[in-house]
Amino acid sequence: MLKTYQVKPVTGSIEGTIRPPGSKSITNRALIVAALAEGTTQLTGVLDSQDTQVMIESLNRLGINVKHDPEKCTILVEGCAGKIPQSTASLWLENSGTSIRFLTALCATGTGEYILDGNARMRERPIQHLVEALKQLGVDVVCENDTGCPPVRVKGNGLSGGETAISGSVSSQYLSALLMVAATAENPITISIQGKMVSKPYLEITLGVMAQFGVTIDRIQPSVWRIHPQTYRRSIAYDIEPDASAASYFFAAAAITGGSVTVEGLNQDALQGDINFIRVLEDMGCNIEQSRNSITVHGCPLKGIDVDMNDISDTAQTLAAVALFAEGPTSIRNVGHIRHKETDRLTAIANELKRMGIKVEETEDSITIYPGEIHSATIETYDDHRMAMSFALVGLKVPGIVIADPDCTIKTYPHFFADLEKLCGQSS
């Protein structure tokens, strides 16, 4: 385990090609849906990371046979046809928000008692909105410490159907969790979405994965969705596209160094909304080139922008790093919900930029970054993989940038620093 990682600056522009690992968002959704399906599904191109590992381990604890081959990037899932085999299980999810939220809903479809918990930060991450929505459907579920956060206890007896309401303002994962399990209910489930939905593209990922396994929803109104009882059909080979959030770091490397980086396996039609980070870079001055199976970002002189990143908030930290090298300030708006992620990301960004001597203005749901002279610094990562990967980009141009606790990237991208070095090596 590395305590720190010192980023080696590049002498010129980065020119190269890379393919990031499979999408975490798609992998964990596909695992839930394949677990609920009839028959055996093969997932290909899957991500091997802490977030996916805790999901796989938990599904196995629930009696769903999941076989993972990390070298081949494949997973075989023997679906339970909507009926969880085990009647009791204790699930440990570290700090994987997708895992604990999706699995809480999955356990509601079972018959028995299930405990879901995680590390110290997980016990600070809200899940009460999902708990309340499940209660409205007749599920016996509570946050054990009465904090609105894990640990969660679920006494499942299957879903009978009915109506429920859920807030969209904190995390789209709550609605995604409900949508994926609703098809297993005995009767239709109607979900009313309250407030403005954050991170809407992630819902499209959920619906896209469900559709690939033969399940659809009815949108009665923009904020009222209904799911009728349906059967997930196995997918003989479901291929998972590369992670667009991970790709953002390499696109940003091109922007920061004035180089050209091609990411293979993605195009503008990717299922993941974070692919639209390239449009943010384009607004800053970069040139974008696309083919059917790749995207290339050509770095050009950068200008600061004012941008609403609600839909692609997982790339807000990436943009914060790029903003340091732009002409004029950059404002990242409508991202207050990222305070409830692996860490309070807005405050973390502000703290580390100030550590490097950069002026920032932070509000409840935005941050404005004023480029200036960047000082060398050891960057605290707050056990947040995206802090480590994003701020490492600054070190490509600024000597003396050290990343504390670089191994926190095991959450979604264990080989990030090796891949970054490989990309930089292509330019030498």
Automatic annotation (TrEMBL):
- Tell me which SUPFAM superfamilies the record gives: EPT/RTPC-like
The subunit structure is: Monomer.
Q: Which residues bind 3-phosphoshikimate?
A: K24, S25, R29, S171, S172, Q173, S199, D314, K341
Q: Which Pfam families match?
A: EPSP_synthase
What reactions does this protein catalyze? 3-phosphoshikimate + phosphoenolpyruvate = 5-O-(1-carboxyvinyl)-3-phosphoshikimate + phosphate
Q: Which residues form the active site?
A: D314
User: Which positions are annotated as binding phosphoenolpyruvate?
Assistant: K24, G97, R125, Q173, R345, R386, K411
What is the E.C. number? 2.5.1.19
- Superkingdom in the source lineage: Bacteria
Q: Which organism is it from?
A: Gimesia aquarii
**Which pathway does it operate in?**
Metabolic intermediate biosynthesis; chorismate biosynthesis; chorismate from D-erythrose 4-phosphate and phosphoenolpyruvate: step 6/7
Q: What is this protein called?
A: 3-phosphoshikimate 1-carboxyvinyltransferase
UniProt xrefs under HAMAP family: EPSP_synth
Can you list the GO cellular component terms from the UniProt entry?
A: cytoplasm
* Annotated localization: Cytoplasm
Q: Which family does it belong to?
A: Belongs to the EPSP synthase family.
Cite the InterPro entries for this sequence: Enolpyruvate_Tfrase_dom (IPR001986), Enolpyruvate_Tfrase_sf (IPR036968), EPSP_synthase (IPR006264), EPSP_synthase_CS (IPR023193), RNA3'P_cycl/enolpyr_Trfase_a/b (IPR013792)
UniProt entry keywords in alphabetical sequence: Amino-acid biosynthesis, Aromatic amino acid biosynthesis, Cytoplasm, Transferase
